[in-house]
Design goal:
The protein is α+β, with helices and mostly antiparallel strands. Helix content is 62%, strand content 13%.
């Protein structure tokens, strides 16, 4: 029975409170007895002391059960009062376990340990709910993105099977199907890459590298696409810029940003890539003279599958994951990625990395 009672925190608090009060009562009795011995001397005093001690002992023995019962009731009351917020937290956690992620404990205006625990618990729930909502949106968006090309493929196949076609019609349909299949492959590859990147399951080989050379090589790789679209690709890269990072990931990062800038810049437009060292950091800016992005879209640009104009993005061949991948690569390198845009003037992406020195670990 005692073990069952002390198995709960409430029972242990009550038992400790009662024990503490009982020990305090015994110590006080001993102290009182010593004081009486010091105050009374002689035979008469000894006789008086013995009589008083006997009476005191009887009084204490009679009062001990009453004191212990009162202490137990008081301890139980205090334990219940102290544990009431924790019981509320427990009930809320059970309701959340049933799927009610929107439930919160709420701020009870206390600054003690339980109040801090409740606030930390609510903050954890906010982050958890946000993560669940992102995953739900991601699943829905991924399903939609995959359904679009699959629907197109099924429609084309149904059309071509509905009646005999010429050789040219078959070739045209197969060519269209090939485009849709390529889009699905790019989408699934980007999804897999982003998932592994976020879980840090991709090869990660950071080295101290010459970022200037890497940027120049990346720009040259994108130059044919820019020339094909009659866009000027200009470089202003300070030589000898050194950072620590994974070369493969950084190349993909800048290819994404340059490809994005070229796709959404009109004919005779201009794309610039600039890199300088300033205040102990390396700043890289990729800017364009495109149509710009409205302010309300800027906070969402790095979300997966977010598109300012869905139809235009799909027509340009994008998967809606390029900027999300870029943002994650920058984060893994300990850098920052800032976007600024003005309608009808263009957009710029500014990246900041720490300067690497030969002593960088």
């Amino acid at each position: 029975m005692l073990g069952l009672w002390t198995a709960s925190l409430r029972g242990r608090l009550t038992a400790w409170y009662t024990l503490l009060l009982g020990v305090s009562l015994l110590l006080f009795s001993g102290y009182l007895h010593l004081r009486l011995e010091d105050a009374l001397t002689g035979k008469v005093a000894s006789s008086i002391l013995e009589t008083v001690s006997d009476e005191l002992l009887k009084e204490m023995l009679m009062s001990v059960p009453v004191v212990l019962i009162a202490a137990a009731l008081g301890g139980l009351f205090l334990a219940n009062r102290a544990l009431k917020p924790i019981a509320h937290i427990t009930r809320t956690a059970q309701e959340i376990g049933a799927g009610e992620l929107s439930r919160r404990i709420g701020d009870r205006g206390t600054t003690d340990e339980v109040g801090r625990l409740a606030r930390m618990f609510d903050q954890m729930l906010d982050r958890l709910q946000d993560a669940f909502e992102r995953e739900k949106r991601f699943t829905a968006d991924a399903s939609h993105e995959l359904r679009t090309p699959l629907t197109a493929i099924k429609g084309r196949i149904g059309m071509i099977l509905s009646q005999p076609r010429t050789q040219a019609q078959y070739e045209s349909t197969l060519s269209q199907l090939d485009v849709q299949v390529d889009r699905m492959i790019r989408l699934t590859n980007d999804l897999l890459f982003l998932s592994r990147l976020e879980q840090q399951r991709l090869p990660w080989n950071p080295v101290i590298l010459d970022l200037s050379n890497l940027l120049e090589a990346t720009a040259e790789q994108m130059r044919p696409l820019a020339e094909e679209r009659q866009i000027r690709l200009l470089e202003n890269i300070k030589p000898g810029l050194s950072v620590q990072g994974d070369p493969d990931h950084l190349i993909r990062l800048f290819l994404n940003l340059l490809d994005n800038a070229i796709k959404y810049t009109p004919v005779d437009g201009q794309v610039n890539i600039k890199a300088v060292q300033q205040d102990g950091a390396v700043w890289v800016t990729v800017s364009d003279t495109g149509t710009g992005i409205a302010p309300e879209h800027l906070p969402h640009l790095f979300e997966r599958f977010y598109r300012v104009e869905a139809a235009r993005s799909r027509k340009a061949g994008g998967t809606g994951l390029g900027l999300a991948i870029a943002h994650e690569i920058v984060r893994l390198h300990g850098g920052t990625l800032i976007v600024q845009s003005t309608i009808h003037q263009g957009t710029s992406f500014s990246l900041c990395f720490a300067v690497a020195s030969p002593n960088t670990p």
